[in-house]
Amino acid sequence: MRRTPESPVVRVLPGPVQAAGIAFLLLIALAPIAYVVLASVSTDLSVAGGTFLPTAYDLTNYVRIWSTVELAAGLGNSLVVAGTVAVASSTVDQMRT
Fold it and tell me: DSSP secondary structure string, 30-69?
């Protein structure tokens, strides 16, 4: 159902409460991503030891993954699939209207 310009938008929560709620949800969503990024630039021993913040940034994990796995081919395949789905979705949407 589409909203018409005449239909009013009813806000259930005041603006500051909405902003605090969104900030809290973003924190919950981004905390695991931040941990993974910080763990990826830490040494293996510091991650195994449970150290959250890296004492020294170590990029050898990235060098190792790019040199041991066909990562570029996998990323290329993912881009092709994502692009195909985006084009197909846009085409179907344009045909619908």
Answer: HHHHHHHHHHHTS-HHHHHTT-SS-SS---HHHHHHHHHS
Q: How far is 4 from 55, CA to CA, in rounded Å?
A: 55
Q: Are 46 and 55 in contact (CB under 8 A)?
A: yes
Evaluate if pTM is beyond 0.85: no
pLDDT higher than threshold 70 for residue 3: no
Torsion angle of alpha carbons 8, 13, 14, 20, nearest 10°?
-130
Indicate the domain borders of the chain. Answer: 14-58, 66-97
Q: How far apart, in whole angstroms, are the C-alpha atoms of residue 78 and residue 1? A: 33
Tokens representing 53 are 């913040």
Q: pLDDT per residue over 38-57, tens digit each?
A: 988 888 788 788 887 888 78
